[in-house]
Amino acid sequence: MNLPNQITTGRLLLSVVFLCLLATFEYSRRAAQLWMLDLAFVLFIVCALSDILDGYLARRHNQVTSFGRILDPFADKILVCGAFILLLGRGYVDEDGQNVAGLSAWMVVIIVARELLVSGLRGYSESSGKPFGANYWGKAKMLVQSVTVPIIVISVGRLRGTEWIVPLRTFMIWLTLAITLLSVGSYLMASRGALMEQSRD
């Protein structure tokens, strides 16, 4: 349990607290629960920065471990997928039945399905002896998601007087979807060797 893995473990624990805050929030009681979104916003930023830090330290000090290679993407998926799923929940529905986070079910399905597909491809490729690290599109996807989620969180309780954030939020959600789909294509290309070998067998 080196320092990078300790940071990753801490991020996973903070992610649980972050998700509990999102799960507890109710838009109908937003005046009294606004602090939950504020704290969730801060926790997400801390988690996102720790993701950069643990990766840097692991590479800088040659402390990349098998445990870290499993735990790090797992913590990322818990944080991001959990956020999008909970922001789609009934706690984020207004009096007219509209999702105040600007999300639709099909959007979240694409985001979560991408993570499941890439996890499957990674496991299959590495079991075949082929490395399957994060590529440019995967890193870009994580970066965009790490910007989109806090924008959504902070926008939910502050739409009045800050209407300018709605177009920004909409743009970031669509950018997230575009990058997500592009990253799927890049990972399919990266794993095509292992998949073609299996088909020949």
Please write out the topology.
Elements lengths: L2 H22 L5 H31 L5 H22 L17 H23 L8 H21 L8 H26 L1 H9 L1
Helix pairs in contact: 1-2, 1-3, 2-5, 3-4, 3-5, 4-6, 5-6
Written overview of the protein:
The protein contains 7 helices and no strands. The model has no long low-confidence stretch (mean pLDDT about 85). Helix 2 packs antiparallel against helix 5 and helix 3 packs parallel to helix 5. Helix content is about 75%, strand content about 0%. The longest helix has about 30 residues. The termini are far apart.
Q: Any idea what the CATH superfamily is called?
A: CDP-alcohol phosphotransferase transmembrane (TM) domain
Spans of 5+ residues with little confidence (pLDDT < 50)? Answer: none
Give me the oligomer status: single chain
Count of individual helical segments: 7
Jot down its keywords.
201 residues; mainly alpha; Four Helix Bundle (Hemerythrin (Met), subunit A); 0% strand; globular
Can I get a quick summary?
By secondary structure, the protein is mostly helical. The chain has seven helices and no strands.
